[in-house]
Amino acid sequence: MKFGVIRFPGSCDEVDALLACERFGEAELLWHADRDLRGADAVVIPGGFSYGDYLRAGAIARFSPVMEAVREFALGGGPVLGICNGFQVLCEAGLLPGALLPNTSLRFVCRQVDLLVENPNTPFTRACEEGDRLSVPVKHTTGRYYAPEPALHELEADGQVLLRYAEGQNPNGSARDIAGVSNSQKNVFGLMPHPEHAVDRLTGSADGGKLFESIVAHVEALAPA
Amino acid sequence: MSAGATDTRHRELGLTDAEYDRIVELLEREPGDLELAVFSLMWSEHCAYKHSKKLLRKLPTEGERVVMGPGENAGAVDVGDGLAVAFKVESHNHPSAVEPFQGAATGVGGILRDVFAVGARPIAILDSLRFGELDSARSRYLLEHAVAGIGHYGNSIGVATVGGEIYFEGPYEQNCLVNAMCLGIAPQERLVRSAAAGVGNHLVLFGARTGRDGIGGASVLASAELDAEDDSKRPSVQIGDPFEESKLLECSLELLEAGLLESLQDLGAAGLSSSSSEMASKGEVGLDIDVSKVPLREADMEPFEIMVSESQERMLCVVTPERLDDVLALCEKWEVRATPIGEVTDTRRLRVFAGGELVGDMPVEALVDDCPLYDLEPERPSAPVYAPPPRVLADDVSPRDTLLALLRSSNVTSKRWAFEQYDSIVGSRTVRRPEAADAAVLTLGPDGGSRALGVSIDGNGRRVACDPYAGAVEAVLECASNLACVGAEPLGLTNCLNFGNPEKPHIAWQLTQAVQGLADACEALGVPVVGGNVSLYNEGGEGPIFPTPVVGMVGELPDPERAAGYAFAEEGDQIALLGPFSPSLAGSELEKLRGGLSDGLAPADLSLHAKHLGLVRESVRGGAVKAAHDVSEGGLACALAECCIAGGIGARVDLAPLLARLGDAAPPEAALFGEGPGGVIVSGTLEAIEGLAEQAGADGLIRLGEVGGEALELTGGVATLSLPVEEAKTAYEQGLPDRFS
């Protein structure tokens, strides 16, 4: 099982993501100019400021060569995890519904928050139980999840809201405390909190590891015996 | 008649008539415009340290673990397993006073470049900030934008901002301080020096294009007092681009890893002028530079503008002819512009060409080594230099309300509002985040080894204003104490000396006293100074800033699992006070709230403090201590409250034993709120604290009480008070946000 972690110029959590993935499987960094995924079984689009994020968070990265390969991979059912800037990129690319807006505070915020697992029946959450509480840090300026009301209803009804901020812990003003959503097929998932920074108790928490563990379990379950 | 008297170009550039005459003598002719511009910058205080160099020789710079001492872009110490940690602190005060967002942002960008210029990957930033009182709209503006600027740069480039400090005092109103410290990690064999070498080698400029930003920054901004026309200096402030620097960083490290560079240097103050002449000076060579080859943002720049531009995100390197193509190709991969702009010569001269035309020809030695060095003329001021602060708290307020007022006061209150705007965790190394422990703790983790680093930055200008010698000693002690509280042993120190105009005798006195204090404290603790920065002329219209030596210290700890935080942990844990703590209200936060500013502080017994710090460190390393917290601003009561707030649990403390030890010298109020070095609160199991008491002896440890309940309860003498932890927490956490509502 191999993770491909995509690095854009300006990514800054790619090494953290790579190290987190390596705790659970093999992992390799992919460059934004690459046109194929070099056999990755799952793709991680890490946090950071792709291309400096000077236009709008994630807006330029969707046009990079590697994103064509990611799109094809996603449409074929491959698991794609977007973290923070990766979440923004996936929304900009139309692979996830909704958009990320500036935090209501209009400031960058870095803090540990508790997340509640809403839907454990996905490739990203299968190692969790419904209602599990995960301690994972957030750090972003543009993390307020937005979708029109009817779309929010639909996302909830369809089980696409995989993680929510625990009560009173929403750091950015996200609609309905949404911390992460998937596409309708549940194989593309984006979240603002950083599970890659929560894989070791020494640096705060190991709860984020459950997401990577889930992906590995999912890929291995699909592999021919 | 001297040339200087008839020609006044040099005065506008900050050179004295005598300095001008000396330049004429060294050149053996009148300087041209470009030459004069280059000399004025190279001979500015910022580049030449002309008022501080002699003084800095007092600082101890040698030690077993020193890998690279002062003089390089950053100092470095050996952290074992073949690794070195490079670090440095630098000021960006005047740019930040004029344009706080970009001033602070480029301060971070510059200190990052200093660290990767020696080949180390930056892993952490700390910052030390000073502003005027928060009831001033200007101070709130400066704070808000400086914090945003630091976050903008550090967060975007992906280097964790793991610690720092912020103080608010009237004398910083016009002239805020923004000091940034960076540390980076490298395999020792990959560290690179900046000396240019190899006649015939290429000089390659890479990174951003050169524009008119920051022209004369080092002389216009950094080496003169600020005045009412600050706004006209805005064009002297550089603009930072963290995205460009992120590419530059990866590109530089990959060039070094591939072994393609002979030497590397960042472009900071005075731009190409200083970077090239310093590389040439260290390598004892000459350099020819053709400014017409430098990629520009604006087409019509004059040669002198190109030579002194402080455009950010640029580096210079020396490359052999055989490796030039590989270097250019690697830069292209990172989308970093790289251009050969000159070559190394054996002339010992910096020659500047514009196309075919020679527009400047200066002996390197004259630029770098021949700047006149001045002796300070220190004189202890006969009258107070600073007006006392306005009184905001009456004398007869109850101890409980005094504690609340202190917890809410700007220098004690939580700085969460600021540090939550910084990414403190990127890099996956941060074991202790801000306000979890006295020092930040970082694992060496992915780069090898099981050890960790402790790092802290400290300095209290008001206490230095009370007593420049004792205050500077305390800055070193506090930093070392913060490291001891996480179990770290200091390896090296960097400092930034922020002072007023050294040409004034009372400022010269502050500077001289403070440097002696730093030197003595470093000597006593055995901590070498491996690099630093001097920032003088910090004066606004209303006088000088408080003398503010800021000290950054890096230490190592064998086991990050045992790094103590300061949160009280468990009901029933015992609390004790370790160390030769002798609190006094002189120079304390309480004195400030009451409108006082003392003259003189009690001297510290340095050998006793060194012994005490060793005991704290060993007890934390041994794992017996669950929480350790240095007593600093606001005294023992505030320190205990912080332990309670962090742990979300109360404590019952009896001050009687402490009062008994202090005797008549200190009233109960001083035991509660007095300040002074050498006090560390520790907590742990009964067994652990009893063991510690045996080692420390009767004088070294005082049992204070135990953890538990929902309030901080202090008894003993007349100092009885009870404060629910929730109420203390609200005061502590809202102190800063409330001032922005």
Tell me the β content of chain A.
25-35%
Helix run count of chain B: 27
- What does the main sheet of chain A amount to? 9 strands, mixed
Structural class of chain B: alpha+beta
The spatial strand order of the largest sheet of chain B comes to: 8-10-7-11-9-12-13
Largest interface: A-B, 30 and 32 residues
Mean pLDDT of chain B comes to 92
Structural classification of chain A: alpha/beta
Gist of the model:
The complex is a heterodimer of chains A (225) and B (741). With 225 residues, chain A is of the alpha/beta class. In chain A, 23% of the residues lie in helices and 25% in strands.
Provide an overview of this structure:
The complex is a heterodimer of chains A (225) and B (741). Chain A is of the alpha/beta class and 225 residues long. Chain A contains five helices and eleven strands. In chain A, the strands form two sheets. Chain A has a nine-stranded mixed sheet with strand order 2-1-3-4-11-10-9-6-7, with helices on both faces. In chain A, strands 5-8 form a two-stranded antiparallel sheet. The two termini of chain A are 13 Å apart. Chain B is of the alpha+beta class and 741 residues long. Chain B has a seven-stranded mixed sheet. A seven-stranded mixed sheet of chain B has the order 23-25-22-26-24-27-28, sandwiched between helices. In chain B, strands 1-2-3-6-4-5 form a six-stranded mixed sheet. In chain B, a hairpin with a 2-residue loop joins strand 12 and strand 13. In chain B, helix 20 (505-525) packs across helix 22. The A-B interface holds A 9-13, 15-16, 19-20, 48-49, 51-54, 107-111, 137, 139, 194, 196-197, 199-200, 202-204 and B 148, 151, 155-158, 241-244, 246-247, 334-335, 419-431, 433, 443, 446, 560-561.
